[in-house]
Structures are given as C-alpha cells and as structure tokens.
Amino acid sequence: MIGKERALEILQKVIAMSDGDETDAMLSTKQSSLTRFANSTIHQNVSQTASDINIRIVKGKRIGVASTDRINDEESLKKLVKKASTIADFQEENPNYLGMPDPSPVKEIDSFCQATAAYSPSQRAEAVRTLVKVCDKDSIIASGSFKTESNEIAIANSKGIAAYHPTTSAEITTVVMKGEQCGYAAASSNHVSDINIQAIAEEATDLCRRNVNQIEVEPGKYDVVLHPYAVADLISITCALEFGALAMQEGRSFMSEKMGQKVFSDSLTVWDDGLDVSGMPMPFDFEGYPKQKVVLIENGVAKNVVYDTATARKAGKPLTGHALPPGSTWGPIPINVFMKPGSETLDSLTSKIKKGLYVTRFHYINPFLDIKRAVFTGMTRDGTFLIEDGKMTKAVKNLRFTMSMIDAFSHLDGLTQQSMFVGGWFGVRVPGALIRGFNFSGKTQF
User: Phi/psi zone of residue 55: left (φ > 0), alpha (ψ -120 to 50 degrees), beta?
Assistant: First the structure.
C-alpha cells in the first residue's frame, strides 16, 4: 500500500507528461496471500505483491492505452506515456468516443480492515486446522483455499478527477468429500472476523453427510429451492449480460425491448449499489466517477440499466458510475448487486413443494446460448436433493439445466428472509429462492 497522497502524485505526474487532448490514468496495488489445502493438508502458501498503472491518451477520437508495473521508475513512466501516445497516433478514430467524465464528489467508504490486511499465514493455517478437525470427526476429507487481500485503486484524469479507495477482502471456499459424497461452503467479507470457520465447516460436512446413496431422477421441469449460492450464480451473470447500457444499445440485451415492462415475478427486486458496506463497496468506477445506486428490477419490472460516460452521453442519460477499465469491450456492467429478500426460510420454502429438487449451487454455466432471452445451461454440484411432500429426502445425482432466466425469475414463488454475500470483489448479496418449473435438460455421470 502506497497511500492516497503518493498514488495521486504518481498519476498527476503521468498525466502532466501526456500530449493528448484528454488523459486518464489508473494506479492499483494488491497484496494477496493464499493458503490452499487438499486431502485435509495444506500444500501451498503463496503471497503476491503487484502494482501497475494504466494510462489512456486521447487525441481527437483516437485512443491509445498502455500499462506498466514499474510505478516508481521515472524513465518507465515516460516510456509508458510515449507508448500510449504513439498507439493513439496510429489508431483509427473511434466514433463512439464521447469524452471523459468531469469531476464529481466521491463519497468515502471505509472498507479497509487492518486485521484482514495483517492476517498471517499461521492464522490462515489455524483456520484450516479448525475446518479439518470438524471434517475428521466423520472421516471427511477437506479441500479448498483461504485468501486474504489488501488493495488500493487511484484514478485521475486531465479534467480534474482524483479518486482513491483502499479495501481489503477475505474469502474461504471448501469442498469436502467422503467417497462419492461431497459438500460445499464459502464465505467472503472485507473483515476477516466476519468469517465463521466453524460454521463453514459444519455447513459443508452436513451437506456431505446427507449427500449419500445418490439416486437418478429423470430430466424435466421441477419446482426447486435454490440456496443463495445457486441464486448468486444465476443473478450475477444475468445482471452482467443484460443490465449494461452498451448491451442494450447494441440490441444484445432483453432490456432493448423490455425496458419498463413487467418481466419477472412481483417479488423480484434487484439493484446495484457500490456504497453499500454489506457487499464489497467501491465508491467510484474505473473512470473515477462516483457510483450511483441503480434499481435494475423493481417488483418484477425491468427498470434501468447502468451507464458509463460513453453510453450515458449517447443516450442523453445521467452517468451512473459503472465504467470498466480502459480497453474493456463489455461496456458498463453492475458489479455490486443486491437482491431484495423475502420472509421465508429454506425449510419453509421446501415445505411448499410436493415433489421437486433442492440445489446447493451450479457450475460450468454457459450463458451464451441465447443472450437476448438469457438462456443459460449448466450443472448442479455439491448437494442436490429430492424434495418429497415438503421435505428433503434422498440425495440426487447432478443434473444439467437449460433455462431462460426470464422464465426462471418470472416463476419465483418465495424468497428467504436471510440474505448472504456470495463471491469476491464482484460478488452479490442474495437470498435463497423457490422457483416453479425449473427445467433440467439432462443427466450427468456423477
């Protein structure tokens, strides 16, 4: 960590060297430590310190982008600027370029935890020991990883933007196994003290113990209860692909046709809020513009998409602070997503199902079958169970699903009161859910 003053000083120096009409630059540093374990034994402990600067120089509508990891070397910074300038000289004009944002006040958010930044290899090892001890009681084998990070990002431009944000994160993921049985659990937070290792171990081993003598069920439509892990898998990809302004403007998103329409169940409300500390907050985007709360879906109505400078100016809309780093071709996307919870528990949702399935999580999701209809395919993993007469009964071999997320979330029939933050820096906070008529299109071999 080099701190706000030094980070912005370096960026201003780089910008002052530019011969462009407009220039912006981003500096980031990361100190990351990771402990991996398999067969209930730690087998790798690694640490990484990295830093880099990205610069974007604009001449008319010609844009050059370059980067370097030598942030403190004067000569390297000069070469960086020259490289980006030369690239801009030889680029074709980008007709979609509409300028950099003007400065706007950025709210400071405290998401840096010193205890997380200072968390040691021995502390991570002790956490893994706690998890393994719980597994050992039932001869269950644990694998996974425990990562702690501290990051800082600073962004400045030639129009006066100067933004800085330090943050930390901690994330543990584990898959536990006993023969063909398996279970899963994970947790993420800015504050390592929020992660309850004992609870993670008990959650994973409980799934593993119940995930025995798996039966096959035929593909078809089933009412399903989805754990927050599974909901997060679906909603995060849906938001990334469908609720960005560029995707809408290019006609790739269903929002190009369904803006303002009732698309989903009344109980579905989703928003993006980079200032909410119950997620992984980020107060500005990669152009240095302050993030705004954006309601994407309200009571089932497709309300808004998120914008960066280019898409907002093209549409005549206010910026929302959702630009990705220079050079990205995705356009703006929501990366701090929240889903409104309901009033149920996973057990009460299960009790509403005569015959259906409980899904812990999905993996290998392919969301590109039909982007306009948000058709995904993927597989269940680490705990799929048959529900009979309102109770989870037998473990089920994994299934492949193929389903439009429009159809899935229009048949939402209940949400849990408790929500959960799932994922890392681009994670989501979601509840568990009951979806009627979820389509499973095939079987798997495990």
Answer: beta
Domain boundaries, the chain: 4-198, 213-446
Residue 328 confidence (pLDDT): 85
What are the start-end ranges of the E strands in 273-346?
294-298, 301-302, 337-339
> Which helix (H) or strand (E) is 32 found in, with range?
strand 22-38
Contacts of 403 (CB under 8 A, 6+ apart): 375, 376, 377, 438, 439
Domain covering 4-198 assigned CATH 3.40.50.10490 in the classification: no
For residue 86, the surrounding DSSP H or E stretch is: helix 74-90
DSSP state letter for 283: S
CB atoms within 10 A of CB 58: 24
As separate numbers, helices (DSSP H) first and strands (DSSP E) second, the chain gives 11, 17
pLDDT score recorded for residue 96: 87
Neighbour-count burial of 211, counting CB atoms closer than 10 A to its CB (0-12 exposed, 13-18 middle, 19+ buried): buried
Cross-strand bridge partners of residue 84: none
Burial class of residue 336 in the structure, from the number of CB atoms within 10 Å of its CB (0-12 exposed, 13-18 middle, 19+ buried): buried
Place of tokens 């998409």: 305
Place of tokens 């269950």: 140
The count of other CB atoms within 10 Å of the CB of residue 251 is: 11
| Sign of the torsion formed by the C-alpha atoms of 438, 441, 443 and 446 | negative
What span, in angstroms and rounded, lies between the C-alpha atoms of 278 and 55?
Answer: 32
- Cβ-contact 326, 309 below 8 angstroms: no
Helix (H) or strand (E) holding 67: strand 62-68
* Distance (Å) of CA 327 to CA 54, 156, 194, 330: 10, 16, 35, 9
The reported pLDDT for the residue numbered 327 is 78
Q: Can you list the residues of the chain whose pLDDT is less than 70?
A: 424-425
* Cα(379)–Cα(401) distance, integer angstroms: 6
Q: How far apart are CA 303 and CA 354, in angstroms?
A: 34
> d(Cα 51, Cα 71) in Å, to the nearest integer?
7
Q: How far is CA 324 from the centre of its chain?
A: 13
Structure tokens at 155: 């962004």
Write down how long the chain is. Answer: 446
In this structure, is the dihedral angle defined by the CA atoms of residues 327, 328, 333 and 337, taken in order, positive or negative?
negative
- Whether 359 contacts 379, CB under 8 Å: no
Asked if 94 and 125 touch (Cβ cutoff 8 Å), the reply is no
pLDDT digits (tens, 9 = 90+) for 257-296: 999 999 999 999 999 999 999 999 999 999 999 999 999 9
Q: How many CB atoms lie within 10 A of CB 275?
A: 17
Q: How far apart are CA 410 and CA 202, in angstroms?
A: 34
How many Å is the Cα radius of gyration of the chain? 23
